[in-house]
Amino acid sequence: MNNPSRIRKLPNNAMGKDYVIGDLHGCFDLLTQLLDQVNFDTRCDRLFSVGDLIDRGPHSLRCLGLLNEPWFYAVQGNHELMMINFFMPYLVTGKLQTLDDISRTGFLEYGGDWVNEYFQADRECMSDAFNSGLAMALDMPIMLIVGTGASRFHVVHAELVTPDSRHSGQTVWLDCDIDRWVAGEEIATNTQDRFFWGRKLMRSTDHGPVQQGLSTTFCGHTVAKNPRQVLSHLCIDTGAFISLDAYDPESSDYGLTLFDVKNAHWLKATYGRTNVVVDTRVESR
Questions:
Q1: What is the per-residue pLDDT for 281?
Q2: Is residue 28 part of a domain?
């Protein structure tokens, strides 16, 4: 996990538009609705994902299959990480006798039970389609750097929070820190853990919206009804899978959010409503 190549750089998009999508969690049909709404052009537009393509929603493998598309770029989320950890013995041996979570990774408990559909007990393995998706998940980066200068932005799953902010006085990592990682400096394990699991920023109330020295950093992982920004982190996990709950009167307030980077507005589709919400407001703290 300390390989700097897991941070990938992409150039500015001179031909089309860039969008960032929140945690998909298998909600492929909501994504399709949003892309249709913005007339997404696969020839020149790009879609970036903050990870958690899988689990909880109805179409996890279809969402994982997006990694095959040349216009789609995603960072690894904690749910992809849990899936990889769960299947690590299988990746080593190529054999799988049971889907019991012997190693107690938490994957099945937190929405991973969809993989049962692809388990072929008679062959003691997973289906070819699943194997393909698992292989692509292994190759997902942990961070994306897009563009340069004033148009630069990052994509990470959870947050870029320093582990010793109380003593160093620096709460988040800056562009210069990230550039050192790209150049080959080791990324500490406790720093990488926060890429996947951290929720410090989005649960805080005592930080401003912008951090000097850190380009806009799109993230997910921590659910709220609308996008919000803390110290240049713009969190767009608005609970797509929650809107599946038809018995919760507030479920339609959640949904899948698509952020238009250039125009700085967002769209949200939900299973509880037929219309797509378009807004420019981002909560700040």
A1: 83
A2: yes
12 three-class SS: coil
Q: What is the mean pLDDT of the chain?
A: 94
The domain total for the chain is: 1
| CA 126/CA 219 separation, integer angstroms | 31
Residue 188: give its domain's CATH number. 3.60.21.10
Helix, strand, or coil here: 44?
A: coil
* Segment 137-155, tens digit of pLDDT: 999 999 999 999 999 999 9
Q: Is the pLDDT of residue 127 over 70?
A: yes
> Over 90: is that where the pLDDT of 229 sits?
yes
Q: Are strands 125-126 and 119-120 parallel, antiparallel or unpaired?
A: antiparallel
DSSP 8-state symbol, 272: T
| 237 within a domain of the structure (yes/no) | yes
Output phi, psi for 41, to 5 deg: -105, 105
The two tokens of residue 160 are: 């870029």
pLDDT interval class at 202 (50, 70, 90): very high
**CB 179 within 8 Å of CB 214:** no
> Which residues are known to be catalytic?
79
Residue 133: inside a domain, yes or no? Answer: no
Measure the CA–CA gap between 43 and 65, rounded to whole angstroms. Answer: 18
First to last CA, the chain: 32
Classify residue 251: in a domain, yes or no: yes
Per the structure, the complete domain to which residue 252 belongs is given by 4-77+140-284
Query: Where residue 1 falls among pLDDT bands split at 50, 70, 90?
Result: very low
Between CA 221 and CA 76 the distance in angstroms is 11
